[in-house]
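Closing statement on the 2'-deoxycytidine-5'-monophosphate sub-project.
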Amino acid sequence: MIIVIDGPAGSGKSSTARAIANRLNIEYLDSGALYRAATLIYLEADCDKEAFFNLLDKKDISFYYRNQLFHIAIDGKSVTDDIRTEAVAENVSEVAAMPDVRAFVNELMREVVKDGAYIAEGRDLGTAVFPNAELKFYMWADLDERARRRFDERKDKNPDLTFRQVKESIARRDQKDEKRETDPLKKAEDAIEIDTTGLTFEQQVDQICLEVKQRIEF
Ligand code: DC
């Protein structure tokens, strides 16, 4: 069983999907984290694309969700924190636009959700990866609100960061995610749209949980 949430960066997909996984006692899958792990491999390898795809194919990427955190490891070494750096954020859209990388990540995800009940979040899950998902949501919020959320999340760890930098970085990513040729960010026709601008976190979680409970029996 798979429920998917797609939407742009900072729309609240990740925190919402985790809260729903906890409430419904199902697994959580963060597809962006898989693209970030691929990006880390790309940055560390510092090689051409051909060599990178060969290397990626040989990597063992494993993950699990526990205590509110999506843990991820490459060849047995945890990269849960390493995938959240600004360097990865700046390069991930470029790496995620490579069709070979998308095929690799999609295969990984389809394999893992065969067993169990999952809520997964990303950009193209309802359109390209799981077109037959039991339930699909598309979450969004206006750019200023998304940038404010990301800025509030990060400012303590990175005191030099400005709101403007975060807003520009998100806008650049939106642009790349929406314009890429392979599986761009797009609302699936049968997805339920949730505009989170002005909603509190509790309100958005309640709204999605209600839809899930009305449509899926646990
Ligand atoms: O959700 P996130 O910010 O961690 O995602 C990181 C990047 O991965 C994002 O810029 C776009 C890409 N991504 C994607 O192309 N397709 C997905 N299903 C999930 C993420």
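The radius of gyration is 17 Å. With this model delivered, the sub-project is considered complete and its resources will be redirected to Aim 3.
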